[in-house]
Every structure is written in structure tokens, then in C-alpha cells.
Amino acid sequence: MATGREIAELCGVSIATVSRVFNQPETVNRLTRERVLRVARELDYRPNESARALSTKQSTMIGLVWDTDHRRPGWRHPYLQDLLIGLKSALSAHGYHLLMLATSGDSREVGASLADPVGYVNMTRRHHLGGLVLIDSGSDAEAFEAFAQSGVPCVAVDVAVEGPKATYVTSDNTAGAASAVRHLAELGHSRIATITGPPGNQPAEARISGYYKAIRECGLPLRDDYVVSGDFYRASGTAAMRRLLAVDEPPTAVFAASDEMAVGALLAARGAGLRVPEDLALVGFDDIEIASVVEPALTTVAQDKPGFGVAAAKAIMAMITGADREGPVILPTQLVVRDSCSPPRERLSVF
How far apart are CA 124 and CA 2, in angstroms? Predict the structure, then answer.
């Protein structure tokens, strides 16, 4: 691969001119610029990104703030894989790259910790990163608000933030949850329970709001014993389903705020000798891969997972380039009807 010095010699210009062609093209006359770019293409020359960042005070790197500590379950959620693919692809289309910013128990080593978000902001400025994408690992909302107030371009996923150069991307969780409950009610279910996400999590709060909204609209009774908390993961779905089956009048249908919890609920129902959907109707949320391969295939509320990444990339590029940016991006959801729901039939309590 050619160097900048070789390009300069072949074109009869200075190294500084070659640098300006790639970093400040508007300062170089058209003929010189075209000659340098043609020779660079022929010799497969690529400017050094580190040097480019120093000269322009901005790199083509976008930092990903995401606490991947193995003790925090958020990074293992399957829907994040599709989100990251969409984000990376969309940034690449603009010539940008994604850089994961590490966290460590020793913040002196990395200079950053979600417990002290100022370290992350300083890291971003020190390396001239173009901006930050913030993915919540379960309890990062307070730290993300500090990022939003820093003036660094940032886009949060599923955390509502506000700031001079901050916005967020989320799904219409309330509408999605309401559509799930309405579907069960339209099948004839009146005893509809829910397994919620963790308290304080914004998507979880929106989904429980959608559950309550649809229960009221359908004229069904609101029962405290039909609302059981989970954490979005399978084991909590199993535990919650066992609690629901132990109430005096068990539900005939359950809306779980994630597919993982719905699968856990399915396992608990089978363990209690119930059949899905004949004895218990189930609806999940997310439409991850397991939803379509589990038996019976799971009716669920689909999120546009790659669309999350694309929307986040579009929003952060708008802030970087100074284009007019819109407010928060709320992506629509879609009810995907499969085999885990049927009309209710009277049954005795299994306990």
C-alpha cells in the first residue's frame, strides 16, 4: 500500500496538500484534488485514521458505551445482536466505524466507568470520537443522562435522554403490549395476566402501561395477583408463571414482556401438566429467533431490531454533520400471530 509521501511525489505536490485533499478537500483546487484522488485509488492509498483524527479534531469512529460486565445480563439478550448488525452496517455506509469503549473495575486504567460517566466523556474528547451510542445494560439511565448533558453527540437505545446533542431510539412498547392483550381478549380471554420486565426499566414500564391500557379498554378487571415481575430472562418467566398458576383463579392467558420470559412460562406450564395453547394462551415480546422455533411457535410482538441500529446511526450522523435533527425516534411494533394462542376453555386449578 502506498504512503502519503509517495502520493505527493507522484502528483508533484506537498504531503500537506495530500493531507488536505482527504481532510479539507474544499481548500484544494479541483484539478489537483482529482489528480491526487486518482493516484490514491490506483495505488490503493488509505489515509491514516489516527493522523486524520488529530488534524481534523474528529475521527470516523463512533464509540459504543455498553457495560458488558459478565455479571450484568443485558449484553446476553438475543435482540441486541440484530441491533448491532444494523448499527454497524448503517455507520459503514457513511464511512464510520464502531468502537466499543471498555469498562473495567480499575477505572484508573481505562479512565472511564459508568459510575463516573465524566471519564467516558473525556475519553471521547481525547480520541476525537464523532459521537456515542448508548445501550442500557439494565441500570444505566442516570449515567446516560450525564452523557446527554455533555454536548457530545449521542444516541441512546431504549433510554429517554435529552440534551443539546442527544436523542434516543425506542419501540412503541405501549402500543405493542396493548395489541398483545387485545388479541387475547378478542379470542375470548378475560383472565389475562402479565409477566413484566424489571422495575425501572423504561421499555418494561411502557409495556406494563400498555397492558393496563388494553385491560381497561376491553372492560376486564384489573387484578394485582395477575401482575408478576420478571427480568426479561427465561428463569424469571418460569418462576413468575408458577406464581400465576398458584393464585386462586389462575389466568387462561399470559402476556410476557419478552420472548425469553414467555418461553420460561411455557416450560412452567408444561411442568404443571398444562397444554399451550389449549389450556393456556401465551404471547411474548421481541420476536427473537427462539419465538419461531419453539413448540408451539410463539405469538409475539415484533420489534424492528435492525431498524434500531439504522435509526441510531442516522440520528447520530445528523448531529455530526449539523443537519436538522428530529426528536426521539419511536419505531412501530407488529403483532406476529403464531400457534401459542387459542380461545379459552374452562379448566380446574392445577393446584
Answer: 30
Q: Which structural domains are found in the chain, ordered by start?
A: 4-47 (1.10.260), 61-171+306-332 (3.40.50.2300), 173-303 (3.40.50.2300)
Tracing cell 446511526 back to the chain, one arrives at 313
Output the CA torsion 211→216→220→223 (10° steps).
Answer: 60
**Conformational region of residue 142, where left means phi above 0, alpha means psi within -120 to 50, and beta covers everything else:** alpha
Q: Helix, strand or coil for residue 157?
A: strand
What does DSSP say about strands 281-286 and 253-256: parallel, antiparallel, or unpaired? parallel
Q: Determine the angle formed by the axes of helices 173-186 and 202-217, rounding to 10 degrees.
A: 40
In angstroms, the CA 24 to CA 34 distance is 14
CB 197 within 8 A of CB 258: yes
User: Residue 218 carries which side chain, given as an amino acid letter?
Assistant: C
Q: In a 3-state reduction of DSSP, which class is residue 239?
A: helix
Nearest residue to 336 (alpha-carbon basis) of 312, 301, 307: 301
Q: Which residue, chain included where needed, has cell 504531503?
A: 15
Map residue 343 onto helix, strand or coil.
coil
Return the DSSP state at 113: B
> Which residue, 261, 235, 239, 265, is CA-closest to 253?
265
Closest to 183 (Cα-Cα) out of 281, 330, 303, 295 = 281
Bridge partner list, 168: 156
Spatial neighbors of 50 by CB under 8 A, at least 6 apart, are 59
- Could you tell me if 307 and 331 are in contact, meaning their C-beta atoms sit under 8 angstroms apart? yes
Mean pLDDT, consecutive 10-residue stretches, the chain (351 aa), reads 81 86 79 88 70 54 71 59 84 82 47 57 70 74 77 87 88 98 97 94 95 97 96 94 96 97 97 96 95 96 90 88 78 97 69 35
At residue 132, what are phi and psi to the nearest 5 degrees? -135, 140
